[in-house]
Amino acid sequence: MFAPQGPTFRELAVQALSSVERGYDLLAPKFDHTPFRTPASVLAPVSRVLRTLGPFDSGLDLCCGTGAGMDVLRQVCRERVTGVDISAGMLAVGRSREPVAAAAPRMEWVRADARALPFGPAFDLVVSFGAFGHFLPRERPGLFAQVHSVLRPGGRFVFPVVAPARPGSPGYWMMLAFDAAMRIRNALWRPHFVMYYRTFRLADVRAELAGAGFDVRLHALPELGRRPDGSPRCRLVVATRDRQPI
């Protein structure tokens, strides 16, 4: 699963026993050599859909990490792209990867908690990749309200969602075991490290986005395959700000 330049087992264990912020600070120098970074096979289809919806002037990568989503925003935003993350270490790595003397759009890296974004309604597009497991279900309505508040009217909040693993499949048991181990870890150890795979259910998320003031549409990503029943393995959620939160 890991490249030779990736973290050792001991380094991963230390990260897992740290807080989310401290854990990613420790992992940051080797993060891009792990399977945790969003792969190009996911980024490319998202870019394809965004090109049909744009262009956009300014974009925000929510929980940007080392900047995989920033690369997507640079393809579809004309003026400015901003990455926000709670980990200073991840931001430092992302900043170091920034193209030298790059043309527009201008790139910015901001350290902040996604639950308290330090922006006004300045963005036409917000994307996020692989970060929602770090938020408990009760935190999502507030998170979505924050995203709504930083989008201009008509702005889009876009992220991919993978279909849940079929019950009884190896992927199902792996996710179940991971979430169970994480709950045991957090019951016995402080600080907590919040990362759960099975709590981000599309039906719940759609209702929460609607409650925050979004009109929600889904786009299939056929490049990522189909399930045995013919449904897409991955969909792109496109939530558009068109009204005030209820």
UniProtKB/TrEMBL annotation:
Against Gene3D superfamilies, the record matches this protein to: Vaccinia Virus protein VP39 (3.40.50.150)
Record domain Methyltransferase: where? 60-155
- The keyword Kinase appears for this protein: no
The UniProt keywords, alphabetically, are: Methyltransferase, Transferase
Checking InterPro entries in the record gives: Methyltransf_25 (IPR041698), SAM-dependent_MTases_sf (IPR029063)
Record's superkingdom? Answer: Bacteria
Provide one Gene Ontology biological process annotation: methylation
Alphabetized Pfam families for the sequence: Methyltransf_25 (PF13649)
Record GO terms (molecular function): methyltransferase activity
Q: Which PANTHER family match?
A: METHYLTRANSFERASE
Q: What is this protein called?
A: Class I SAM-dependent methyltransferase
Please name the taxonomic classification of the source: Bacteria, Bacillati, Actinomycetota, Actinomycetes, Kitasatosporales
